[in-house]
## 1
Amino acid sequence: MDNNLKREIILDNYQDPMNKGLIGDSGYLRANASSENCIDNLDFMMKLNKNVIEDIRFDGEACAISTSATSIMIRSLIRKTITEAKDILFEYQNMINEQDYDSKKLGELCVYDDICKQPNRKNCALLPARAIIEILEEFEKKQQN
Amino acid sequence: MIFLNREDFPMLSQDIVYFDNGATTLKPRCVVDSMIKYYTAHTSNIHRGDYDAAILTNELYDDTRSVIKDFIHCDSPKEVVFTSGTTASINMVVFGYVKNHLKKGDEVLLTKAEHASNVLPWIKLSEEIGIKVKYMDLDSNYHLTLENVSRSITDKTKVISIAHVTNVVGDVRDIEAIGRICRQKEILFCVDGAQSVPHMNVDFKKCNIDFLSFSGHKMLGPTGIGVLVGRYPLLEDMEPIFYGGGMNQSFESDGSYELKKAPFKLEAGTPAIAEVIGLREAIKYLQNIGMDNIQNYERKLKQYMVSELEKIENIIIYNKNTDSGILAFNIDGIFAQESSIYLNHYHIYVRAGNHCTKMLKDDMKVKNTVRVSLYFYNTKEDVDKLISILKNSKDIFKVVI
């Protein structure tokens, strides 16, 4: 993907992110993700119905990379099953961490495919994935009990 | 102009502008050399050896207390306790002294501009013994006025603990006047000197300070070494947090023991010897330049920086009227971290964040800022570079993304 197009997608999602703002609904599971190395600090909430993600919302203070990655991730994950979502997040983490990955599964998330050139930004890109996985695992644990 | 040898600072041989002195400062070669010499030429523990290396180490270590006494204007080298840093010093005051002298309902006055290390120990103590932590009001510039200090004091006020210079706003508190009020009203006066001692003359005695805390690494010295200066009767009355070697006179199998006198009873275990020696060298370096010279130079450089920043339309400055070398700003509409990443692209090192003063956001209505914190080795050219980069910040996202 052309660098200008990547920047445009990132900026669009930073300046007008999807589902920013939390709501008071007890049917959601919640998680916070913050970073030791920077000042990103985001709260997440997710609604699951059986094994399907119905909604993800977020709020907080974060940089362009964290915020845009959250927005694109939310768009990619809503209406996916837990298995599908985990698969996407797994490939995404591989991409950020410079491992082999399947770009076909990632769609727009591929805009971060060379974020590793800015090592201090890797954590920013990974931050929403960390929170979303935490919620998914919490949900699965509850299902098992 | 200040006498300054930039070659003394190896980091400055790189093409960088170092503006993060509130976090930590660069080290002159003499500081590093003194530590290397200890590690390569006279390694030895203190107070235990009769051999030449140990005698030299002892001399340097003990002399550091005298150097600090002269630097900070306290009564005696015995009032100087070595700690690991400001955080450790304040925790020693809170849990080693105040805990044993206050009771439920007694009040401790802080401000919302304090660093975490001058807030959390007090909150923890309030959980433990039921003291009440109160915050003195700040004025519209986030400064602490004498009126607000006086207004906050009640019959129950037993301690005032404040930074001399706050680390985001950078206002210089009138600790001489506040110290006078504390002495009159018999209030314990604790001063966090982490952001002031490196930059200006601080007079422990004249300001009626009871406990003064500061860190070595913010004043050209190594990390891992800090100082607590305390009035001697208070130090004698302080309970050690740590027990072990070096702090006891004797101990017997029947459980009886006798501790050394302060400051030694407060320094259990082998101390950070190399760091003490490095700190000694750092203070001598600062004394050689002169603390008043440093303060005046930084003030002028900050005034110049503010006057230039004000010419840039989209820069919001939060503390242009303060008297220290600390400046907090944002590029309008840009998250502070993007700004610091942008500046790093041009090798300008600043800090973005809330700078460990998480309560100040309530008053300032802004959570995160970019902080430039100056030191005497910064130059007008450094400031000019910052200004020219900020003037071109319209393209910031082309640089940071």
## 2
Amino acid sequence: MAPTDPGSGLAPSSSGVEHPDEAPVDLTAAPGAGAALVPPEIVAQTMREYVHGQFLRIRGGESGMLPVILGLVIMVIVFQSISPHHIFLSAGNIVNLFQQSAVFMVLAMAETFALLLGEIDLSIGYVGPVGAVIAVQLVQPTTTNWPWWAAITVALLACALIGAVQGTLISRLRIPSFIVSLAGLLIFNGVLLIVLAFGPFSGYPTLTGPQPNLRALYNLMWGHISPAEGWITLAVIVGVLGLSLSLRDTRRRRSGLVAPPVGLTVAKIVLMAVVGIAVVAVCNVNRAAVGTLEGVPWAIFIVLGVLGAWTFLLQRMRFGRYMYAIGGNPEAARRAGIKVTAIRTWAFVLCSFTAGIAGLLYASYLGGMSNNVNGGQLVLYAVAAAVIGGTSLFGGKGKAVHGVLGGLVIGGIYNGMYLLGLAVQWEFIVTGGVLLGAVTIDAVSRRAGGAGSV
Amino acid sequence: MDEPLLKVRGLSKNFGAVQALTDVNLDVPAGEVTSLSGDNGAGKSVLIKCISGIYEPDQGHISWEGRPVRIRNAHDSASLGIETVYQDLALADNLDIVQNMFLGRERLRHGMLDEDDMERAAAETLAGLRVTTVRSIRQPVGSLSGGQRQSVAVAKAVMWNSKLVILDEPTAALGVSQTAMVLDLVRRLRDQGLAVLMISHNLNDVFAVANRIAVLYLGKMVAEDNVTAFDRQSVVEYMTTGGLGVKAKAPNSQAGGVEHGAD
């Protein structure tokens, strides 16, 4: 080849040409390899390296969950110092805050399925309540009197079906999800009003009453386990998660792969235990003005259950991997043989299904359903919660846990403003401002070149 | 010469009134780099898409390891062992190197993604191609440079016991040192006994790695021979005029290629 190559432009690399074995391709040594974007937990061998790596990453615009955690801390400090009688951090208010946030958290996890694809689902603000009103109507003792489990199943299946229809329109007919779900927002507002009007309840079917099926739905939000059960459950959760974390590290080390530093894993487990102990301890304080009201509310376990299930689905299953791939590069996903259309449709099914769970919590929180549901606001809060938590609006980046943290921020603002006695307009303005801030962080970190890791 | 790994005979393809390929012959032997050159619109992309199953040819046949085959879709070509790396690389920036290399063919254990197994296999493949990592193959592909991304895309293509790797302009978007890195990688594929079909109209790259050169001109194969039969001038002539000037000067080199006398 050499004689035909006079004055080659490749002269600087000719040594590599002659001795290919001496020029291994190094994926990380080249300039511009964006070392700052590498998740530190996968490369750091020691805690010091980890902290340094994390710092570089944040400076590089890849902030991860740091903004939302900082936001939570600031929110707690501000509201605690200015709320009347410093009531914000009282046990009763913290439990109340969890319960108020639960709806936003689950709705944000629902929205995450759409956001991961770079799509949006605006309809869930009413799809969730439609599921809720179906369940509430079905358990009414004076009319259908269904058992609670059957009512919940039918309600969630109805939501999933709605998601399947919208998802099919979006993924097969290629109608923008914004339009389909905006239409859905209106349509299901109407459906909600129609279903509300069934039966002799003048549009206000309630969950108050001694019948077990009514109680079951009511207790989704207001029921709680005993203090002792709370401690046992916590021990089991921390034990199982801690064990699986350390087992995974051990397995990776034994098979010669890089595992996170031991200190980091221990720190994670300790943090999990500390947060858990704090939550259970606070919930176990008697928060009733008269009598006894103590224990961890079921709502917290419902949120944790949804979080666990969707985290597993997104991080450990093929379906989740394909969600991220489609969000990152749909064409690459298609060429890799992924059934993009089917996955997209399923994403909307799961979105609406999860919204149904949020709707059930919402109905339980209100103790029934009425036409006084502001679905437009609910869905915007859901999007806000997901984005505040760190999920990208541009697709391919986000986790279920982001929705939970973001939901806590939204719930905290809602709760704190209420404690301050501020009118609802201020809640709108502050929440809108926080959403805008979160989206700005998202857009800026994207422009900074951080495609970001999942 | 032995039976080439891939043999294309009399292949034609038209899109409506446009005749994209006319009676094209091409041999791609194992363990060699075959360069496919030609000006814009010469039909290079159509030809590789016919081989990789994106398009179905109107006429002609393809034989693989001496057996006639029909390649109707990308799945057919993949099951034969043909992998194509297109110019856009088809990598998801938000996924890490391992996740990209296994995209669509994830390994499972108890229904869950077997991350450790995939990471080991990816590391082995990368090490075999001497694509090393100082940090981690768990970094997102979006954090890599152009040459590194190309290397990942190539490694992804050779992972699947592929026998023929088709590279579409692998160095088009790269600088000098990154180009050298990718060309080294192409040589390593060849040294491992794979057949490489590389589209390129950068003559530096062609003469740096190719063992064989094939030139398309307006949908026709105007030259196909060992690299020694060409010099830069003749390749440029074939690409721009279909070889009018070369025919006058050196009829032998062209005749040897087009008639496939070695078969």
